Amino acid sequence: MKVCLLNDSFPPVIDGVATAVTNYATIMTESGRANVLVGTPRYPDADYSKYPYQIVPYQSFDTPDIADGYRAGNPLAIKEINEMAQFQPDLIHVHCPAASAVVGRILRNETNAPIVFTYHTKYDIDIARAIKSKHIQKEVIKAMIANISASDEVWTVSQGAGDSLHALGYEGEIRVVSNGVDFAKGRAENALITEATKDFDLPEGVPVFLFVGRIIKYKGLPLILDAMRRLSEQGMNYRMIFIGSGVDAPELQQTIRENHISLDIRQEDGQITHEAGTLPGKIIFTGAIYDRNMLRAWNTRADLFIFPSTYDTNGIVVREAAACGLASVLIQGSCAAEGITHARNGYLVEETGKSIAALLAEVAPHPEQMHRVGQCAMDEIYISWEDSVMRAVDRYQMILEMKHAGTLKPRRNGKSDKFLSMTADVMTGLYDIFHAPETFRHGMLENFAEAEKHFSEKKSSLRNNLHEIHQEIKEKKQEWKEELGETWTKLNGSKK
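Given the sequence above, the corresponding structure tokens read:
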């Protein structure tokens, strides 16, 4: 089958959804289950030729004040949408409810291929972070839900993600299709662990706690720092490792200094700065690590993975940790905690730094217990990307069979789909005009130049007329001023 994958992020941007899309595309291509095309906003200097599948990058715009590091795609990039339509996809899989969803709906109008949409993350939190106006937030969420509701089938990566989507106003059915992990099951070799951790102070016998992800406060990172402060005040020696980069790193590092805890930071040039604290324990920021083997090594070296996020809908990093036999500390009731039984294949705590600290103080003295729970996590919650993608492809096949049998219930939004179709027709017409044969195009350009000259002359004439009017008003004002002065003098004389 031919599958078109659409997402608003793709390497060089690395996030959970971009990782999902690259794994979908790679595994379907290498397995021969599907011929793949990826549509994504273009990032400057990105090399899209190195991938074993076709990529159609379309026009994008920088968004530094809204979503640092991400670009907004132009969903009416008709030239590129036409190129995607020529691929003649059997199925369109959209992974983001913004530009990608609009592109997918226009593409469906052109090809009649059904749309599958996957809800990966709680976009309402990202929207609230980027947009301060409550009214605009509400309208953006409404538009997002309209895009999702227009899909032929909606997937979420966890049951909790589905509950979140329904809470935002989505009323349709959902299907849970979990994401996978590209780590092979098993612990990393000792030599690899030594290579990954050689630059850092990690004494034997001192518990090592790990977080991997974007360094952004809404992933629960202030809770981790509060827990570390409590452990330090209790006299515990530990190492807390943060792997990743993000806009909130400087603020969190300042909090650590104010808590008087030792702090090591690997700078962008690779140098490590050391700041001594007066309390036991140490917190280390390694920066972003993109080498998957190095990440496997850190997951193997750590004793516990701490992930107090209620934002994430699936927590791929929790399953990556499980692949290496590393148990996670999670917030009870969070999406990341689905499938976790306390003290069996993970640990569940309340959403407070006090609760996290109490759990760590209880289990840290018993490394064998933590490793046993980690082994259960490997056995019970690990899922490979190969298994995840193959399940998705099997479902694709069922959707296509339902379509051919006439039993697939379309969820198109009549009014908005009609509008998108009309918009696409207009944009296509404009595209055809501006890519017409040279003689016709030059003739049109000459007409535009003539029109511009005409309007320029009119503008100059109008400017002269305005100048004359301004002078006339100025003279009149002077006359009126003199007349008012004479009148005022007469009035004062009468008064006397």
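The first strand starts at residue 2 and ends at 6. Try to locate this feature in the token string yourself.
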